[in-house]
Amino acid sequence: MHKNRIGAYLFSFPSFFLTMALGIYPVVWALRYMFFEYQGFGTPKFIGLENFARVGRDAEFWHSVLNTFIYAGGKLIITLPLSLILAVILNRKLRGRHAFRAIFFLPTIFSASVMSIVFYIVFNSYNGIINQYLMKLNIVSAPVDWLGAAHAMTTIVIIAVWGAVGNYMLLFIAGLQNIPEDVYEAASLDGVNPVQRMWYITIPMLGPVLQMIIMLAITTSLKGYESIMVLTEGGPFGKTEVMYLYLYKLFFPLTTSGTSVQNIGYGSAVGFTTAVIVGIVTWLYFWMSKKLNNVY
Amino acid sequence: MKKRFATKRSFLLCSLLVMALMLGACSTGNGTNAAPEASAGTNGASSAAKTKISYWTIDRHDMDYMQEQVDKYNATNTDNIEVEMKVMADNYNQAVEVAFASNQAPDIFRSGDFQTYVNKGYFAPLDTLLSKEFLAKFDGLLVEDVYTKDGHVYTLPNTGQFWRLLYNVDLLEKAGYMEPPKTLDEMVEIAKKVTEQGKAEGIYGFASNFKNGSGFTRPAFASGSLSSETSHEGFNYQTGEFDFGMYRDIAEALHQMKTDGSMIPGAESLDIDPLRAQFAQGKIAMYVNHSSEPAVYTSQFPTDINWASTLVPTKDGQINGVTWVNAGGYIGINAQSDKQAAAVKFLEYLYNTELRTEYQEKGLGLSVLPYVNEAAGKPELKGIEGFLPTKYDGIYPATPISVTETKLEGKKASDVFIEYILTSNQDLEAAIKDLNTRYNKALAAARTEGLTNIQANPSFSAKSLQGSLGQ
Which residues form the signal peptide (chain B) (predicted)? Predict the structure, then answer.
């Protein structure tokens, strides 16, 4: 037994080492600078909690937090019900269901950056396909600036939903396949309609799977920024700036932003704050969703 | 029992193998210079005496030509130097940082972010390596914080981006204008007229790529600096403080064009390449960009439209300064390299007049070096003539804007101006006042912490830069 434990440690060591070297160490390396003034060169200067005081005063950061919640909220409200409905439909014994599942899952395997460039072509206002169709159908009389200040966030949410639905659909299908068929048969004998079937059987019986999927969806949405970086770079004038993009720019200034100097000290404090925000939201969700953990 | 022993033994062997592989991986890569020397040693007697140096560049537009020149140098130099040129992909600054951190940095390399490279000790001081005669070629050009710092030269100028107003000659003529605008009011008027005539066909008077801050800085830096005798990038050299009032006129002109409907729809989210594609199709009458454009309209977006370029307009046509030329350092020598003497020889080769004039004549880049511009013939590139150095082009001393923005609280200047241009949400005067207050507070903090030593220079006059690059 004791020797088996040594073996377990030995086999765990490579992944433990890699996690420490590539996951934990860089985080600790960056976080230690949250108490320092450091631009990436020279000697870091200890400034205590000043970086955190600046986070508190930084209206641009808190604006990006608000944008993050709008983005994540919009994405979750549409994605989760839509992927659950698709999962329920494609979990039936329909002809071609495997092909449909593959089609809906395809966006997950595409690079977010590449797809964002494609969506830029689709949504741009001067010759984008969407505007051309809308104008041809007389729905709008002038091109809509889908990526301008008024609509950029909505457009980004639509693209995020497109990219996420297939992934959550597949996870829901995995959960649905664990629900015994007998329960549905018994319910149909009792004459339940499809809505009752979904509300009183499917959702409660998904239980812990549903809880896990929602948690994954929340954390992924709060951390998402890649497609925003490609599509709008957080613009116009900060309208689509989300907190992880704001953080990214502090460590790796975009060449188009005009700033080339890193802000590692302040960036670390912002990084810590964003991690705390995501942590609190996740914890709140777990606390509120305890009931979902009950398997009926 | 025997089987169990065998299982345990193979289990133990596997564990040891995994550990050995990991340790092996961790122990490789002792540094740059070690690797080439080791390979030189194994290459046999023929190459043993060669001094091999590595050269990193990020320039892809000239890589074929530069590789030819490197091959020529390798074949002809009498110092037995062999240069290996490597064209790096994006994220060049990060690649250089990683290379220095792991002692695998090249011996000679393309300059990236000057301040960072000097502060981190990547650059060797060239004034201790190059002869005074060689450095004399750059007299009057070696601007502090761009090429030199604290009395030492770390990199040297080569080519630059020259900023101009690009315009569609036919669209302007159709609207009744035989000459491009010289004042901002003329630009606004022309944009309005062109749009009135062409809107039905999707033709608009003006565009800029407001997807990011450069949508403002492209026209504003060019026009603002040409108008001002004291300032660049919002920084007043004479007072040593920020004053964004220098961009009031150009911001108002851009705002007016937006209000008039003279800007192409979607300018808010427009990137530079889609803008170029529209210009190439004859849908945009005017925009501001730099001397890369002739190459863009030759290879990336070939076009038959009749376009030209001219100095950017100023408020009243008056020129008090120069249009800024973006001419950062070209290459530097690794401060840690033990082959600096060979790197110096190669650097001197890269600056020889024959190579540099041919480079310019092929249209690969416009030189800021007077000795090259005097010797070079007209570049073989359609449209380049409008970008050639004039009396009103110049290299400004560095400003502290980058380091100031690391201490800045609130919106950056470019975002504030773009919001004003695209919306009518704010009062421009109040916005400029607020920007000045916040930037000067951030600058004071940066100075206190020693992040910049750029101070006021009461005798600075941008007029003195006129004629420094051409006539």
Answer: 1-27
Residue B157: φ, ψ to 5° = -70, 160
Query: Closest-CA residue in chain A for B263?
Result: A126
Closest Cα in chain A to B200 = A142
Chain B residues whose CB is inside 8 A of the A14 CB are: 18, 22
Query: Does the residue B8 lie in any domain?
Result: no
Residue located via tokens 């948690």: A215
Q: Return the ∠ at Cα B233 (arms to B419 and A226), rounded to 5°.
A: 55
Above 50 in pLDDT, residue B19? no
Q: Which residue of A has its CA nearest to B90?
A: A255
Q: What is the CATH number of the domain that holds B346?
A: 3.40.190.10
Please tell me the pTM assigned to this model. 0.81
Q: Are residues B224 and B336 in the same domain?
A: no
Sequence-distant (≥ 6) Cβ neighbours of residue B158 within 8 angstroms: B327, B330, B331, B351, B356, B365, B367, B368, B369
Q: Tell me the mean pLDDT in the region B79-85.
A: 94
The ipTM is 0.78
Smallest Cα–Cα separation from A132: which of B261, B284, B202, B209?
A: B202
- Residues B430 and B304 occupy one common structural domain: yes
Encoded amino acid at B460, one letter: F
The answer to whether A45 contacts chain B (CB < 8 Å) is yes
Domains of chain A plus CATH, in order, are 69-241 (1.10.3720.10)
Q: What is the DSSP letter of A201?
A: I
Nearest to A259 among B8, B274, B402 (CB): B402
Q: Enter the DSSP assignment of B462.
A: G
Q: Mean pLDDT across the stretch A196-213?
A: 86
Q: Cα A255 from chain centroid?
A: 25
Asked if residue A258 lies in contact with residue B217, where contact means CB atoms within 8 angstroms, the answer is yes
DSSP code per residue over A121-173: HHH-TTT-HHHHHHHHTTS-SS---TTSTTTHHHHHHHHHHHHHHHHHHHHHH
Task: For residue B400, say if its preceding peptide bond is cis, omega within 30 degrees of 0.
Answer: no
- Based on the fold, state whether residues B136 and B171 are members of the same structural domain: no
